[in-house]
Amino acid sequence: MEGLPFLPGYTFNDVTRQQHNVSPNFVYKNGYPIVKEPSTGVGGEPLDIEGVLYCHTPDPVSYDPSLTYGRTQQHVPSMFKPHFVLYDKKCLAFKAFFKQGVPNSPNEHYRVHHVNLTYFLEDDTVQIAEPTTPDAGYPQGTIVRRCKLPKNTLGEYFHWKDLNNGVDLSANGIVYHICSCDKWTREYLMSQGVEVNEDEPLPKDPYTDRRIMENTTKSYKTPSFADKFYKFLVYDKKVLRFTGVWDDRDSEYGTFDKYSILYYLADDTFEIQKLPLGRERRAEPYAPIEN
After folding, report:
1. Looking at residue 190, what is its pLDDT?
2. 165: which of 189, 197, 264, 269 fits an S-S bond (Cβ 3.0–4.6 Å)?
3. How many angstroms separate the CA atoms of 113 and 102, rounded?
4. Domain ends where: 165, 181, 212?
5. Coil, helix or strand for 270?
6. Residue 71 placed within a domain
7. What pLDDT score does 291 carry?
8. What pLDDT is stored for residue 280 in this prediction?
9. In sequence order, which residues have a C-beta less than 8 Å from that of residue 169 and are 6 or more positions away?
10. CA separation for the pair 161, 206 (Å, rounded)
11. Are 69 and 63 in contact (CB under 8 A)?
């Protein structure tokens, strides 16, 4: 029955239908008829367009959404990197110090030890080392080898969130006071939302300052002495020459004369010679005035 053509003699009416009314196509508003789309068919039955047969959905197998929405960009997921690869060779560097008491000493009561605190982001381990000082008089080097530092007795360990300037850190019975950090450490902590405190100056060690004062080498400067033979070998035949005039024309029988002033570097002596004024007066050489 469904495949028959819609022609006279091939259609059949429903004999059980009791209502044959048609829904109105107009709606009056303010006295004007307005066309309304029919919501029901003859006799109040649903329209054919609302049936399942009239629901034309694209075939999910043969339908290509790119024909309608365009080609989508393929998202290439980034390569997964484990924690120890992502933070390999990345450390947080801090400057800290601790005080060590010196009993039974009349010269000092305590010593200040400067240390470098390194936190490894790869495995959350900490290393504390004291930089070596020449002729310190006591052993220096690594104080705490690279390991996880216990934070309390509950099994917790120190994390990079616990490190900041002005914070005290206890390790193996020694309390370290963190004073400063480098530029990369400050930028990393601030990028993670940690407010980094201002850097504090490291206190000086009175024991080291006293040893530096005691071991300072005093320098002596030998005064120079006049060596005439040395000056003769170096400055022989080296003369400084100056030219001067003597203007005595304001007085009676005064003249205007030129002089040559010679300074001998070999023996620090002067010689003053009178120079002729013209070619007609150079018949006889002038003897030196002072030698």
Report:
1. 93
2. 197
3. 13
4. 212
5. strand
6. no
7. 57
8. 42
9. 96, 117, 149, 158, 162, 163, 175, 176, 177, 178
10. 33
11. no
Q: Looking at 54-174, list the stretches that DSSP marks H as alpha helix, in order from N- to C-terminal side.
A: 66-69, 83-86
Instruction: Give residue 25's Cα distance to chain centre.
Output: 77
Share of the chain above pLDDT 70, in %: 88
> Of the residues 212, 236, 268, which one is the last residue of a structural domain?
212
Domain that holds residue 239: 228-281
The pTM score is 0.50
Question: Which residue in this structure is represented by tokens 């390991």?
Answer: 147
Contact 118/92 with Cβ under 8 angstroms? yes
- Dump the DSSP string for 174-233: EEEEEEEE-HHHHHHHHHTT--PPPP-PPPPPHHHHHHHHHTPPPP--PPP---HHHHHH
How many Cα atoms are found within 13 Å in the side-chain-facing hemisphere of 135?
8
Residue 207: CB atoms within 10 Å:
20
Q: What does the pLDDT read at residue 145? A: 92
Phi-psi region of 238 (alpha: psi -120 to 50; beta: other; left: phi over 0): beta
Residue 202 near residue 222, CB atoms below 8 Å: no
Rg of the Cα atoms in the chain: 54
What's 49's DSSP letter?
G
The answer on 251 and 200 residing in a single domain is no
Task: Determine the average pLDDT of the residues in 5-26.
Answer: 79
**Residue 283: is its pLDDT beyond 50?**
no
Q: What is the CATH number of the domain that holds 176?
A: 2.30.29.170
Spatial separation of the C-alpha atoms in residues 266 and 239, rounded to whole Å: 8
Whether residue 198 is found in the same domain as residue 246? no
* Model pLDDT, residue 62: 74
Same domain flag for 200 and 102: yes
Question: Does 168 lie in the same domain as 112?
Answer: yes
- The pLDDT, as a whole number, for residue 288 is 60
Domain count, the chain: 2
Q: Among the listed ranges 81-85, 251-255, 283-287, which one has the minimum average pLDDT value?
A: 283-287
